[in-house]
Task: inverse folding
DNA sequence: CATGAATGAGGCTTCATTCAT
DNA sequence: CATGAATGAAGCCTCATTCAT
């Protein structure tokens, strides 16, 4: 989401993206405490270039989060198109946990930065998307009607965090999600 | 668990405990990035004393974790004594989430330090305790037989992380746990 | 004083002047530590353009000084034309102090850059001009004969510096100059 | 003026003083833009030690100023004791200009830092001291009664600045001060 | 043993200057 | 010529750790 009042030069844009990718990697691996210098190295640019594009480390973190959240929103949209409404929400849980390593950044940042970083818009969009999934699932009868968005978001976050920090393997992911899905499903 | 080859003088032991308490507070509030100096201040000792007791910041963190995990183990034992076997596991989930703020340290540390810190013993003990809870619940018929320890631990961790980093209020804690409990319960 | 071996295109010259004006403003307000980038912004040109015209920040500073000194010289000439010879020197003092804010740049630069910047020609010209003022005043009998140019220049500089860094208001300017003028005047 | 709630260890105090001296030198020579690192080198301590004693560069500058101003105040007091009241003020002017190189720091800081640094107490004390000198001189009849403190302070500052940034030699100092003294003296 | 001063590597950020577009 | 992105040295400051008192 580069703010392009003026189109932005080709090379600058390429660097911007390289930096964003490098940052995503680095912060995923080392947590948000990783140094900006390392991001620069991994991106193959000088440290000054990172700061030209993102005047502050927090700006860089914020931008990564925006990107990740945007990607999640589009994942949701894709699922709504390609899956039967009754399973799309479950599929989203599964995807999310499977990608957890990538999502680590999102969660860590939400945790670490907390008050400082603020990207309510992006978060709000994701919530609206997931709400769509939930409603569809309830209409299809695969999720109980007394389940509401907040706990779904909470479970999404929890399970994702858990997967990341706990290092769940595939089998464990499946078994854990099975419990959650059973909990969401119709009462009988 | 002071390494007591030589008994350790009374005042030294008192300092050790003060430091541990202070550290728990400080790291809970500020995250593991908080400075050792602040721990020393809060404990009312000089920085050198902290490093005499815990040669490395990581050692200090590790020791806190051990303490927290030990406390969890004793929580579990207490629940086994005081609660009907069918609900003890659920009670433990509830307790854990409610105390999440305190547990923040545990999780953060697990996340942050990851590979560096390693405290398999303490974790193992907690796992054995929880396994007891699980088996009892299954015997009592309040938890499905095809639920196994790994996913229970996973859910415990996930839900705890979620509660902390998501800042769930009491209502949200209850609703989220309701889903999980439904998922653990008998299939109808 | 653009170095015009080749005449220089009209737009280039306009940029040169814009940069010079901007630089004068910026350095007056923020001191010589202000960034070249800000000069470029204020001038409405790109940073590269500033460095094309002035290969070094020091070059830019030097050029500003030359300009300011040249302006002072022409102020002196004007006073010699428009004022009675007995008061022109005093008038120059007064003008200078009143404009001190503008002159801040000159002085700061002299102070800050010291050895690095060197602009003997321009300073020499100003000295010759002021010498004219001094001689006239002495001929008119308003300044003592045993006062020489060096101390006049020194007082000029001192009073100007003082006015700038001390933030003298009008009343204080007047009272201070009154002392200096009394000191310069005939003995009885 | 170390704030000695607790007496302060001998070595710490020695370092503190070494740093202060080094800083005075460095900032005199290179201006307030000189690097803290250089101060550390000159003082023969590590950079961290400088920051332990003065948490901020501004704190260091402020402390130097306090010290210099305090020394000036004591200079004044000494003059009042050792000199006839009619000449003490003039002697102070002379001393000040002669030491200008040392005082450079004071003035530069006053100029450069302006709003940021604030040490009103120390400045106020100096003003009160100089006021004493002025009154004495007026009582002794060596300074006109219609001269007031503000312009004396202004001239002091101006002449000092001038001496520093202008690099006046002894002869020039004398001639310039002669003019000022004549201006302060009785109207004939 | 406790104290707290000293160390110095490392992090974030700024800015003069260079160079591809 | 102008543009503005890239560079990288350098500055300020923090903090884990060591060591003299």
Result:
């Amino acid at each position: 989401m580069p703010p392009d009042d003026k189109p932005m030069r080709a090379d600058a844009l390429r660097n911007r993206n390289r930096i964003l990718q490098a940052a995503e990697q680095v912060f995923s691996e080392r947590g948000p405490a990783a140094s900006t210098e390392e991001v620069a190295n991994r991106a193959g640019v000088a440290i000054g270039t990172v700061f030209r594009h993102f005047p502050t480390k927090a700006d860089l973190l914020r931008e990564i989060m925006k990107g990740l959240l945007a990607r999640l929103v589009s994942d949701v949209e894709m699922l709504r198109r390609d899956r039967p409404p009754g399973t799309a929400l479950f599929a989203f849980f599964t995807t999310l946990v499977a990608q957890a390593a990538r999502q680590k950044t999102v969660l860590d940042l939400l945790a670490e930065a907390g008050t400082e970083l603020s990207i309510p818009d992006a978060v709000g969009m994701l919530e609206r998307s997931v709400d769509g999934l939930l409603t569809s699932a309830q209409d299809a009868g695969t999720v109980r009607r007394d389940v509401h968005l907040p706990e779904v978001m909470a479970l999404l976050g929890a399970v994702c965090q858990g997967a990341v920090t706990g290092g769940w393997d595939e089998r464990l992911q499946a078994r854990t999600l099975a419990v959650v899905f059973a909990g969401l499903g119709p009462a009988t």
Q: What stands out?
A: The domain at 58-184 of chain B is CATH 1.10.357.10 (Tetracycline Repressor; domain 2). Residues 57-82 of chain B form the longest helix (26 residues). Confidence is low (pLDDT under 50) at residues 109-116 of chain B.
